[in-house]
Amino acid sequence: MAFFRNRTVNLLNLHYGIHSIALTGGGAFFGVYLLKSGVPLQGVLVSIASILIGRFIVRPVVVPLAVRFGVRTMVIVGTCMSAMQYPVLSFVHGVGPALFGLCAMSSVADTVYWSTYHAYFAVLGEGEHRGHHVGAREAIAAMVGIVSPLLAGFALVQFGPKVAFGVTGFVLLVAALPLFWTPDVRVAPQSPGAFRASLSGIKLFLCDGWVVGTGYFVWQLALFMSLGENFLHFGGALALAALVGAIAGMFLGRTIDSGHGTRMTAFALGSYACLIMLRAAALRDPWFAVAANAFASVGSCLYAPTLMTAVYNQAQRAPCTLRFHVATEGGWDIGCASGLLMAAFLIWNGTLIPLVLLLPLIGLSFAFVQLRAYYARLAPDAMRMATRVSP
Known about the structure:
Layout: H1 7-24, H2 30-36, H3 41-58, H4 62-69, H5 71-89, H6 97-124, H7 130-144, H8 148-158, H9 161-175, H10 194-197, H11 199-226, H12 231-245, H13 248-257, H14 261-282, H15 286-317, H16 321-348, H17 353-356, H18 360-388
Helix pairs in contact: 1-7, 1-9, 2-3, 3-6, 3-16, 4-5, 5-6, 5-9, 6-15, 6-16, 7-12, 7-13, 7-15, 8-9, 8-12, 11-15, 11-16, 11-18, 12-15, 13-14, 13-15, 14-15, 14-18
C-alpha cells in the first residue's frame, strides 16, 4: 500500500488519532455537558454559533502569524490552545461568565488549529493517494471513537467534569508531540489570486458547515435528551456508532482514488441523506435512536472522504494552501452558525425536533451538486493516474 509509505502523513494521522481521542471523548460531551449544566437547548445552540462567529472574526490574523512563524508551529500552538478550553468547560454552570469565557477561548483556539491543520495536511499529502489518506484518517478517528466516549462518560459520572475534561486537555497536549517530527511549511507574504482560487472550497464548506451544524450538533443534543440525559448511555451510543462506521471511510477512499468519485458521491451523499431521515424518524424511541445513530455513522464515514478529498486537492493546487483553508474555514463557520441559529429559532418557536433534524438535507443537496461536478471533471485524469500508480 503505497499511501502508507509517506512518513509525514503517517505522523499527521498519528497526531489526528490522538487528537481524536480527545474529540470523540471529552469533546463529544461539549454540547451535552452545557445542556446538563443548566444552559437551555436553544442557549447551547446559540453558544456554539457564537463560537463560530468569533472564529470568523478572528480568522484573518492566522495568515500573518503563519507567515511569521510557519504552519507547523501554528498547528502545534492551536493544538495546545485547544487543550486549554476543556478545563474551562468544567466550570460552566448555566449561562454566566464561565460560558462567555469558554466561547471566547474556543473561538481563538479552534480558529488557529483547524485552518492551519487542514492547510498542513493538504500540502504534505499526495494527490494520487488523497482518498486513501483521508479514509485512513477517518478510520483511525472512528476506531478510537469506540473506546474514548465510554471512558469519557464513565469519568464524568465517577470523577466529575474537572477530572474528565482535565484528562481531555492533557490528551490534546500529547497530540502535539508527533508534529515535532514533521517538516515545516512556509507561507509567502503575498499570494495574488488566492481568494478567487478558494471560492469553490468556500461553497463546499458553506454547505458542509450547515450539514454539521444541523446534522451533528443538533442531533447529539437530541440523542442525549432521548437517552434521559445520561452520560454513560450517551457514551455507549457514540461507541456503538464508531464501531459500526470504522471501516467505511477506508473503503470509499480507495474507490475515489480509483477514479470513481462521481459514482461514490451519489452513493455516499445519498446514503447519508437516507440515514438523516432515519434518525429523525427514530428519535422518539431511545433504542431506535441509538440504532439510527450507529447506522448514520456509516454515512458520515462515507461523506467525509468524499468532501475532503475534493477540498484538499483543490487546496494543494491553489496559489496559497493556507489562505485557501482560512477562506474555506470561514465559509464553514458561516454555514454552521447559520444552521445552528436556524435550528435554535425553530425550536424556540415550538417546531418539533424531528422536523429540525431534517435541516441537513438542504446543505447536503447543494454539496451533492458541487461534488458531482468536481469529480466529473476529474474522472479522466484520475483514471489515467490510477493505471500508473501501483496499489
